């Protein structure tokens, strides 16, 4: 992303503003759930764009910041320019008690000396300004909003910040819309907007159609900052719903089958809306090489994987052998990070898929690549396994039944059952389980037994 000095105000004013905020932000940023560089200090901040939305000379000031955070590289990683983050900074003389959780700090010097700065999404007025900007297609500095002219956005909807997200932030407006604010910003076409727009053009009802979206145009590059979509009021998160049914001892196979059908509808619509490609031996060798390299790195990071390495590698070797025999596969755009938590069931029983950003840590070009649809399917199958093991280690039968029902539902719409390609399915499940082992070992060691259980199964299985 190209650097720019400012969108509003003079260079010197912006420099003084950021100099006064930097000590506070360097302490505050690493504590945020959506900050990607956990465990490494922020050594500096560079402005990409600074936009003054409300001058700080009244009761409330408001700044939109795109800042690049500089950190020492993670072990084993090459140095890079640093991630760019989107911040909405409010300015007040003092914070009322209701905004205490939003506190960033008290400014000691510079143009905001004596003021208090805070995370403005907690505050109704800044959140209302965001919606109004989208409603009116506003352009301020580098910020540019667009909207679907066929969807109405009423003024005056009451905002509330959702606090459960990790990689981004969301605000709900009057149970009518939900605004997803992307925290880590990269230039280019973001799949979280691209794919729902493509599905809307296809008339696919399984994904809420974008109502409006916000861009930043910095130099010759454009970045998606936020997407507004209809809010599915009263919807149940798939993960929470599965755990609730497990706790009650209720059968979940009907929901799993319906979710399989919904996934297939989305895949079918995406195959119509966006280009597909054929994966031959060259492409498959590259895919298998990537899986093998991730396994080798995982074994180095988590020694508990070492006894299973030969069996896990055999999953990839079997796939390479099929490709060498001339087998081909079709790849298309997919969700990229599908699991129960990315699915919503409305009160009417309709399932929707959300959050098409993919894995935020991966490069944008990689997240926009065509993939075999089985990648999404493997993610969902692993999610059923996670739900079962998190509820009770004895719930393996529940997971097995849900996995079977999901695949059957998928086949009802797609015309093909993922289980009829066991080599590809095993390879992708293995790749996902290996990723999970590394993640849990680093972040949630108490959960490590969940993916290791799958690793033992996958290393011993022979789908041929």
Word description of this protein:
The chain is α+β, with helices and mostly antiparallel strands. The protein contains twelve helices and 18 strands. Helix 7 runs antiparallel to helix 11, helix 9 packs antiparallel against helix 10 and helix 11 packs antiparallel against helix 12. The protein is globular and about 70 Å long. The relative contact order is 0.10.
Q: Strand portion, in percent?
A: 15-25%
Average residue pLDDT: 92
**Termini separation (Å)?**
47 Å
CATH architecture of the largest domain: Alpha-Beta Complex
Summarize the biggest pleated sheet. 7 strands, antiparallel
List keywords for this structure.
6-stranded antiparallel beta sheet, 18 strands, 464 residues, globular, 7-stranded antiparallel beta sheet, Aminoglycoside 3'-phosphotransferase, Chain: A, domain 2, alpha+beta, 40% helix
Describe the structure in brief.
With 464 residues, this protein is an alpha+beta fold. It has helices at residues 11-28, 124-135, 191-201, 238-248, 253-273, 281-301, 309-324, 364-367, 374-391, 396-414, 422-443, 449-460, and strands spanning 44-54, 61-70, 83-92, 103-106, 116-119, 139-140, 143-147, 159-162, 168-173, 177-182, 184-185, 212-218, 221-230, 236-237, 277-279, 329-331, 343-345, 351-353. The chain has two domains: 11-230, no CATH class; 236-460, Alpha-Beta Complex (Aminoglycoside 3'-phosphotransferase, Chain: A, domain 2), CATH 3.90.1200.
